Amino acid sequence: MSRGPQQTEDTPVVQDSASAKSRPRRKGPGPFLLIVMPGLVAMTGVSVFLASTGGLSSVLPQGSNAADSATSKVDGSYVPWLRKATKACTVVTPSVLAAQIDQLSGWSDDTASLSQQGIARFTDAQWRTWGRDEDGNGRSSPHDAVDAIMALGRQDCSLVHEVTTLRTKGTVNGDLVDLTLAAYRAGTGAVEQAGRVPAAAQGFVRQVKARLPQYEALVRQNPEQNSNQAPAAVLTPPVTTLTVTSPFGSRKHPLTGVTKLHTGVDFGAPQGAQVSAARDGRVEFAGMTTAYGNRVVIDHGTIGGKRLETTYSHLSALQVTVGQSVTTGTPIGLVGSTGLSTGPHLHFEVLLDGQYTDPLPWLTPAR
Length: 367
Description:
Layout: H1 17-22, H2 31-53, H3 56-59, H4 64-71, H5 79-85, H6 94-105, H7 124-130, H8 145-168, H9 176-186, H10 188-194, H11 199-220, E1 244-246, E2 249-252, E3 259-262, E4 265-268, E5 274-276, E6 281-289, E7 293-303, E8 306-315, E9 317-318, E10 325-326, E11 331-334, E12 345-352, E13 355-357
Antiparallel strand pairs: 1-4, 2-3, 4-12, 5-11, 6-7, 6-10, 7-8, 8-12, 9-11, 12-13
């Protein structure tokens, strides 16, 4: 165990009485140096050791501030993607994946490392294996949070298969979540050689699992995503071509510069293109707003006991009025760039019981 810096004291010098009388008397160390300083030094040494070994988080108070700081890094907009990323394997849950990302990066894209990129800290070689364009914006990048979440989910699920095989053969023992996280940190070979979670991965596993309760609470706060079943594709595309220019999720607004939840998905379309109702319903709102420009909100009734609504924003013209009944495909407006907008597009939202959810899984494939 490394130790903190050792305090030293000068060795007293023995002087004769004459010499002592001729010189000012030196004062010895005061009570602070004798009593308080050694304790501070010892505490510093322990803190340095714990930080270097990954054990510091286990001794810090786990109060409400810790929970708030963790869950404030990610909002409910990522829950659908966390759920989708872990759908292929039951061992890694959305909460586990979120806690793993928190431990890796604190959900921050910034890193001093040139080799590890994005919130999931992928290397170039890893990204070539696991990375894909998941949100349909035309690029695959570890700096795209949605792409990174899905890629890490694929990697973890592959590790689940490897460690499950080893445990079935009796080569390793332990909890599958622990073994999977250990294989991520130290490699499957290290897990197999140790026959359990190797020492090199124990701190990482402990820290990820310490974050789990916070992210389990986050998932519970988004009940529409708790089911393992994806939402039924019950909505018709509101525009002819579904070209995603900005996906659902947290982003920095291009005009205000504020990073917050992008509550819908932006479809690129030319000025004046037709926008149609995605499903039968009743127009709840049709008018001008400051941020959304010309906006239409349609109530589609309930699905599975939950109220379904869609919104259509930044329209150049409105073609419906409040209270009007519409059917699937009814013209409701034209694509525009009204409100806070950088160019012609449709901002399309889906709300389930008043909660924003990713619109893409709700849409039937474009024809």
